[in-house]
UniProtKB/TrEMBL annotation:
InterPro entries in UniProt: MFS_Riboflavin_Transporter, MFS_trans_sf
Transmembrane feature ranges: 42-63, 99-119, 131-151, 163-182
Source species: Geodermatophilus amargosae
Lineage: Bacteria, Bacillati, Actinomycetota, Actinomycetes, Geodermatophilales
Protein name: Major Facilitator Superfamily protein
The organism's place on the tree of life at top rank: Bacteria
Subcellular compartments: Membrane
Amino acid sequence: MPPEARSREFLALSAALTLTALGLYATSLTLIPLLTGRGFSPALAATTFGLLGAGQLLGRVVYGPLSAHTSPTGRTVALIGASALALGVLAVLTGPPAALVAAAVALGAVRGACTLLQATAVADRWGTAHYGTLSGLFAAPITAATALAPWAGTALAEAVGSYAAAAAVLAALVLTAVGLAWSARGNG
């Protein structure tokens, strides 16, 4: 195993993006019940979910210029912070419907940008030597969190009483990831 994979920076960054992925995917994949709980018809909630997907494309388009003008740590902290903000807005915003749709699109945008952030994190900080091994080790917990997210979002909503309350808990969790990302700044 390359020594970078055991470094505090590597582990902190992987943990930060794992928590972020859990929050983003658990909330976005339970968006329809969150919105129907806020009075949206199932059709409008499903349409909004589709617009979240369009937001992902927007986030991926914006990532290139963001990457060109920020450091790896700067964009990581900014995108994780934006993720926490988007989750928090969805947790507390009750209307109007257009504002909730905009919040869902924003959630999709940060989710799309975070996909590219994850894909470039290892090479941006540790170069391409041992890239396959490092990238696999880095992505493994993120992938596991993403796979568990639909179940985790639903289980959390049942435990705390609503999908909105679950989004609030996940926003707080992702907010802690900002600190982890900042602590990983040794290589970026």
